[in-house]
Amino acid sequence: MTNLKVGVQLHPQATSVANLREAWKAADGLGVDSIWVWDHFYPLYGDPAAAHFEAYTLLSAMAVDTSHASIGALVTCNSYRNPELLADMSRTIDHLSDGRFTLGIGSGWFERDYTEYGYEFGTAIERLHLLRDALPVIEDRLGKLTPGPVGSMPLLIGGSGEKVTLKLVAQHADAWNSFGPPDNFAAKNAILDQWCAEVGRDPKAIERTVAINPGDVDDWEAFVEAGADHLIVMTGDPFDLDAVAKLREATRA
Hints:
Elements lengths: L4 E6 L6 H14 L3 E4 L17 H11 L4 E4 L2 E2 L5 H14 L4 E6 L4 H7 L6 H21 L10 E4 L6 H8 L2 E5 L2 H18 L7 E6 L7 H6 L4 E6 L5 H11 L2
Helix pairs in contact: 1-2, 2-3, 3-5, 6-7
């Protein structure tokens, strides 16, 4: 028996809204701990002209279609929405879900989203600085909204940049998402612990999540040994919930 959490990220590309709704209802029925979509405007792999749907409108539907799992975007691109508006949207989805929303956020990276939707792409460090500046604005607006979030509405930051991103995680986040393989995750995890020590944060206060492929579920113990608290299986349509169910069963045996 382990305390490891199990989640699933459903890719909103090359699919339909009906299939997405069926998948997140099925995942919730499995008793997963978290269900996520990504925040992009175009497919990240396969046919670049395939169907694609926007994250936050999907999350509003997910909020009312599910009842158990936490929900969120893994991760929201900070550049795509005014931070004050993002705080309000997040608070509203938190109410729709009865307090199950997690605000996952990152600095953004997919250039096609930016160029086709008219956002300034800039440089990686410029996008990180925009995220740095947005985080306290989001926190401030959440404190001003009436009513505020239903629950604690955790903040998750995604990314592995050692100088800026992981410092922001140590300063602001309740959770952090990264990727494998386990040795890579372990190295980044150790650097996050160092940042926590530097800024005076208890490292145990930050949940460590790792996004994995369905084929990686058999390596779950290596991720736990590397410091993972929460594994999130990434899958596209046809949505592979067999791998999610297998991981959930294995971690609860």
